[in-house]
Amino acid sequence: MSTSPEFLLDARVVLDRGDLHLDVELQVHHGEVVAVMGPNGAGKTTLLNALLGWLPLQSGWVLVDGETFEAPGEGIVTATHRRGLGMVFQDGLLFPHLKVAGNIEFGAAPNADLASLIETLEVSNLLEKYPSELSAGQIQRVALARTLAADPKMVLLDEPLAALDIAGRSRARELIGTALSENLSGALLVTHDPADAFALAQRVLVLENGRVAQFDSPSAIQSEPKSRWIADLMGWNIFRGAGRGSSVVMPNGTEIATAGLQTDGEVSVMINPVAVALFPERPVGSPRNSWLCRVRGVQFLGDIARVSLSGPLTIYADITSSAAAELALKEGTEIWVTVKATEVHTDAHSNGD
Amino acid sequence: MRAQPPVRIRVIAFGALLFICAPLVSLLWRVPWSRLVDLLTREVVTDALLLSLITSLAAALAALALGVPLALYLTRMNGFSASLIRAVVVLPMILPPVVGGAALLFAFGRNGLVGSAVSDLTGLVLPYTLTGVIVANTFVALPFVILTVEGALRASDSRFELAAATLGANESRVTFRVVLPMVRPALIAGGFLGWARALGEFGATITFAGNIQGKTQTLPLAVFVALETDRDAALAMSVVLISVSLLILVSLRDRWWPVR
Known about the structure:
The complex is a heterodimer of chains A (353) and B (260). Chain A is an alpha+beta fold and 353 residues long. Helix content of chain A is 23%, strand content 35%. In chain A, helix 2 packs parallel to helix 4 and helix 4 (136-149) packs parallel to helix 5. Chain B is globular. The termini of chain B are close together. The model of chain B has no long low-confidence stretch (mean pLDDT 90). Chains A and B meet through strand 7 of A and helix 8 and helix 9 of B.
């Protein structure tokens, strides 16, 4: 157990809740925003509630800035209101009986600079309104202002943008980013949207089935997803098969070579669509992962063309729109599909969903 | 939009309405309206009016003061013990008021379990006093406050308490600044329903506090006595009681039963 104040948050949360067995260890550096992602029921909200002291730990520890808030082994439990941890809820949870101003002032620290918070979060024209008169985006901005006004040591955000429409999202994301960087010593942001995680967080913790599946930088999560769930979220191609030597054999017999897997069990194979190359002729040197497929459709998304292919593998390839034009791809076109073995990622432990 | 019920159901429904309205209309029919002011200003009546007003309001406030903490406590309880406590708490609501009054005598009477100790210590005697009327009224009003407030507390989202705690609010601040203000409509409704119940209380009052004009004779007791001696005065006082009760129920209609 570490007591080093080099971390803003140092926690290991172990608890059972219903079918969920949560066992998560994480550290957050000073000034760092960590995103928590994971499928429904993975334990994201439970983790936040445990850090807040709303759910008791079975074992583990919660240290904030070197101060122990909870350590069942030593009989230490600090009440929620003494932890100085702020929380922004998915639905804002503004007090319905108080106006916006009353909400923001509810827990305001004596030294809080409310005026600048109100300006940063663009809520000055809402102060005299009741929460029932606000839009979802306004509610979240007020909720963040209310939380930051209390001058928390750290802020936890539970899907703060989930209730917003697309138009409101990007603006709210921008405002939250500004507010977090101006006011904050660190934050934990639960989200299901990779855009939120990658825009706001320095590191991403992927939680699956109550355990840490991956804890890494956004770019590493994108380029090296360690679990089927996160790969799926990134729009990767996912296949399931049986490990055989360094290859994985699909149920239809197609074999995908990897760079070094050695397992005999069930394996998920994850391939970034960007790593899927298309050739009109059989590629020279015939790399191991090359299959003759047929184009099912092409979808143009700006500069990117997403090509849907079927054959030995049903797979997506993301190529540039100009390359797609050059290959004259249309439905039914036969084309060679190749993937380097080093671009084939595997997740031998995932049980899928 | 719901479908209209079949004709025979509508006939029975109309009959039920008639059954409820007939006594009320008949009573109002017999009221000597031209002499109403004169009747209501007689000493027996003004005494009873004033006494009823004081005791019922005091009982409503006492029921709120006692009932809200118990409701807060019950909201946090679950399982068999909570069901048991709730049953005991609601008992005065369905208990024949005379039995309630007798029970009050055995508890707070001069020789009662609690009453004897209290009178030994303080010299305070409850039966046949104004305070006794308030005690009896509080006893019957309490369940209305508890049920109304607990229902609202259970329906409110407990995450607001977590939100308040993350803003540094301790238990008492959470309770007084968040939990109770959020159920304010229920506090008001519970208070008014308790008041209406206290205002109409008869059995427990007469058993525990007696029927002394100007001291413990509330409006319902005065009506009962006047029915034998001065029917017109009884009718006039009944008009007052009906009006107040109706006014309370109509103004609370959204709280007591859902409209729409």
